[in-house]
Write a structure and sequence with these properties.
Layout: E1 5-10, H1 18-26, E2 30-35, H2 39-47, E3 58-61, E4 64-67, H3 69-79, H4 87-103, H5 105-109, H6 116-124, H7 129-141, H8 155-171, H9 173-179, H10 184-194, H11 199-210, H12 214-225
Parallel strand pairs: 1-2
Antiparallel strand pairs: 1-3, 3-4
Helix pairs in contact: 1-3, 1-8, 1-11, 4-8, 7-10, 8-9, 8-10
């Protein structure tokens, strides 16, 4: 059955939740944001029994309390028509999703130190986004496909889009284009995925209304976790 609505619980920032929001937005699913702001919010959420491992993000959909990023992303993709049926294509989606989780690590950490140069050096390192992952993704798209699986978008496209969008969020549109100048297919792919569902609306309107600035977001995470 197609997914029609969801409630997403996390802080007012990207962190480890934004890939899930992107899947919902690309799939055209409207979601409600439930935002953590103080320690009492997290304590109440834990007491509710909704968190299997006392961790967020939490996505409530289809009567389920979905936790842990990878299985949640797959479940949402299935409900949004963004998960393939063939095992080989499922594997492709899976390895690309796992790679994006590694690639976005320096970006997840950025709000907690705000050192743009440090983040950039990590992204440009031989094992980072630009050194390791972007060339592989560019090569996969280089086979003349609009999306990683061909003519049909999938979870893999959402995940890679989110990483580039995160770079754009930190460094701006022009810097994104400069950093990915050697990867024109990825840049074109980014623009293509932005047109799916209501992704553009979430990026340009919803996120701006919901999110805090980087320092405020980091402060809210620390306060909620009691740091």
């Amino acid at each position: 059955m197609a997914l029609t609505a969801a409630t997403v619980t996390y802080w007012r920032g990207r962190g480890r939740c934004e890939p899930l929001r992107v899947v919902l937005a690309c799939g055209g699913v409207r979601f409600v944001g439930n935002y953590l702001e103080k320690k009492a919010d997290m304590d109440a959420l834990k007491a509710s029994g909704k968190l299997q491992y006392d961790q967020v993000p939490l996505v409530e959909a289809d009567g389920l309390n979905l936790v842990q990023g990878t299985p949640t992303a797959v479940y949402l993709a299935q409900g949004c028509g963004l998960w393939p049926e063939m095992p080989k294509e499922q594997y492709i989606c899976g390895h690309i999703l796992a790679a994006t989780q590694d690639a976005r690590g320096p970006l997840v950490s950025f709000p907690f130190h705000l050192d743009e140069q440090r983040c950039l050096e990590e992204l440009q390192s031989p094992k980072g986004l630009l050194g390791r992952f972007a060339p592989r993704w560019e090569a996969l798209l280089g086979e003349g496909k609009p999306y990683f699986l061909g003519a049909t978008p999938s979870l893999a496209d959402c995940a890679v889009y989110e990483v580039l969008d995160f770079v754009r969020h930190v460094y701006g549109e022009e810097r994104l284009k400069a950093l990915f100048g050697a990867f024109p297919l990825l840049l074109a792919h980014h623009d293509r995925v932005l047109g799916l569902g209501h992704m553009r609306e979430w990026r340009d309107v919803g996120r701006k209304e919901a999110f805090l600035d980087w320092p405020e977001y980091a402060a809210s995470v620390r306060a909620t976790l009691g740091f």
